[in-house]
Specification:
Layout (H helix, E strand, L loop, with lengths): L2 H7 L2 H19 L6 H8 L3 H7 L3 H23 L6 H18 L1 H4 L7 H8 L2 H12 L5 H16 L5 H12 L20 H4 L2
Helix pairs in contact: 2-3, 3-4, 5-6, 5-9, 6-10, 6-11, 9-10
Length: 202
Amino acid sequence: MTSRRWLREGRSDLASDRILDAAAAVFVRQGVARTSMADVAREAGCSRATLYRYFDDRPALRTAFVHREARRLAAEVAAEIAGLDDLVERTVEAVMLCVSKVRDRPTLHAWFAAGNVGITRDLIDSSDVIEGVAAAFLGRTGDPEEADWLVRTVVSLVVLPGTDADSERSMLRRFVAPALRLGACGEPSKGSVPGLRALLAP
């Protein structure tokens, strides 16, 4: 397929999504660390020159992929916890759903395979990724530190799972959910960490 034909078939945002879909397939098949821009272009059916029109380099491609998946995951989780009124239960279920979806989806779980953990760690430490997660999960006014906390909570359970789902829920109820009701000095706040209301408030 020529680059010109490829561009006619999927332009602008659709083209970017098509590239990211292709990248996801290669990430699963080869691992994130071993996926090159040439691999992604081949999978997408476009030239490398076309690929570089949308993503400057591999880090930019990886960051865009994580941003997109965070937005999708946030939308799914928000819809699935919509019927829960209790703040603690909403918090616990939100985190458990995130963890479960990451574990169950090869395109997300691939980021936690042994050869890819370094890349995932670097992305988690990236302010661009944390800001993207803040926008997806907490609303655009969310505190990046809250997003950082949420991401690291999910990642810790993916990398170091509890004995079973019940033990993970118990840990979240005891140690994570109470943080929503505490201020920076341990004083009771008015219900929850402000930025988390976008996702967790009934």
